Amino acid sequence: MTTRPEDNRHALAAAAVVVGADGSEPAAIAVRWAARTAADRGRRLLIVHGIDLANTRATYDNSQIEAPAIVEAFHTRGARLLSEAVALAREIAPSVEIGTDLADDNPASRLIALSERAHMVVLGAAARVGPFAHLGSTLLAVTAHAHGAVVVVRGGPTPDRAPVVVGVDAGAAGEPAIEAAFAEAAVRGVELVAVHAWSDLSSTAFAGASYVGDPPDALMDGERALLAERLAGWQERYPDVAVTRQVYLSGPREQLGEWSGKAQLLVVGSRGRGGFRSLLLGSTSNWLVQHADCPVMVVHAD
User: Fold this and answer.
1) Which of 173, 211, 213, 291 could form a disulfide linkage to 271, CB 3.0–4.6 angstroms apart?
2) C-alpha dist (Å) from residue 66 to 26, 56, 58, 77
C-alpha cells in the first residue's frame, strides 16, 4: 500500500485540475477534457500558458526581445490564448471555478512546478505522431518529470461505460498507478481491467527467439497469483469496483495498446525498470503516450 487518501496532496479538496493551453487543437481538446473532469469532481480548473521568454531571448536578438513593446506583445498573445481557453472550458463546465496562470517561464517547467499540488495535469497530443520527439518538448518533459498524475488526452470520444484499464507489473514502482486506477474507476463508476504481462518482450519474441504455442500452465498460474496479490489490498479499499484480470505472457505495450481501443482511460506507471532519471517514462508508457486510442494517465510516485 502507499498513501492514505487523506495523506495524498493530489487528493486534497484544494488541488486543482491543471491544463496546458497553447492555442493548438490538441490543447483545446485537453482543455475540454480537463473542464469536464473538474466539473465531475467539483474541483477548480487552472489553465496555464508559459511564454518562455528565456528561450525567445535565445532565438532572437536580446536587445529586441527586452524591448517593452515586444515583451508586452508576448503577454498580450498569452492572455488572448488563455481567454480563448477559458471560453472553451465554460462551454463544457459553466459552473466550474476557473483560474488562469500566465507565466514568463518555460511551459514545461511551470506545469511541473504546479503538478506538486495539482489533482492532475492535463496535456493534449495529436491523434497520431511519429518519433517521440514529435510529441513536443513540453509534453515529453511534463510526462517524464511531473509529480502525481499526468493525463495525455488523445483518441476520440469513448462510451461513458467503457472501463478504466491499468497496466500492472511486478515492481513496487507501479503501485501508485494501481492506486490511481482504482480511484479513477470508482469515481467514474466503471469496471477496472488490470492487464499484466510476464515479459517486456514483444508478443512474437521470447528469450531471443520466436515463441509460438501456449505458455506453460505453471508460469501463467504463477502470474495470475501475482496479479491477484498486487490487487488484493486495493480491492478491499474499493469494494464497489468490479475488476477483470487479464494475464499475458509478453507484449505489455501491444496488449495495453489493444485495450486502449476499448477503454475510456488507460493508466500506467512512470518508471522504466532501469530507473534512470532520463528514462522515467519507461518504454511501455513512452509507446502508449504516442499510440494509445484513449487518454493515457501516467502516474508518478511522489
Assistant:
1) 173
2) 31, 10, 12, 16
State whether the Cα torsion 281-284-287-288 is positive or negative: negative
202-208: average pLDDT: 51
3-state percent breakdown (helix, strand, coil) of the chain, nearest 5:
45, 20, 35
Task: Please enumerate in sequence order all residues whose Cβ is within 8 A of that of 181, keeping only pairs 6 or more positions apart, or say none.
Answer: 164, 165, 166, 192, 194, 267, 297
Alpha helices, H only, the chain? 25-41, 53-59, 62-65, 68-92, 107-115, 137-145, 175-188, 217-237, 252-260, 283-291
Using one digit for the tens of pLDDT, what is the confidence trace for 16-29?
Answer: 999 999 999 999 99
Q: What average pLDDT does this structure show over 264-286?
A: 65
Span between the terminal Cα atoms of the chain, in Å: 14
As a whole number of angstroms, the distance between CA 42 and CA 209 comes to 52
Sign of CA dihedral 194, 198, 202, 203: negative
pLDDT reported for residue 252: 87
Across the chain, what does the average pLDDT equal?
84
Neighbours of 131 (CB within 10 A): 7
| Residue 177: half-sphere exposure toward Cβ, Cα within 13 Å | 32
